[in-house]
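Sample intake sheet
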Amino acid sequence: MGWLFLLLGVMAEATSHVALRATNGFTNWLPSTIVILGHLIAFIFLGQAMKSLPVGIVHTIWTGLAIVVVTAMSGLIYKQHLDAKVWLGMIVVAAGIAIINLAGAPHSH
């Protein structure tokens, strides 16, 4: 269940980060509400993930995956497109996350 909670936390945070642009300095109530609730929900899910996964692993995957998801969502929603070098950097981040997971880092139960 820890991995599911982690994924849900990443999605909640990524959604709130993408909505942050539409808040117009927190003057638009709907995106502002999405930002606040998204962060709250993300931390609730991350706290649940940390019950069964090590803090360092949760934090590493959360931040790395959030970078990629926010970038992809921004491209879809705001038509913000990045060049190949930036995407290559994100692939390196993703590869690092995969290596950490494949290394068999100890999991607490």
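Comment: The first helix runs from residue 2 to 20. Helices lie at 2-20, 29-49, 55-78, 84-102.
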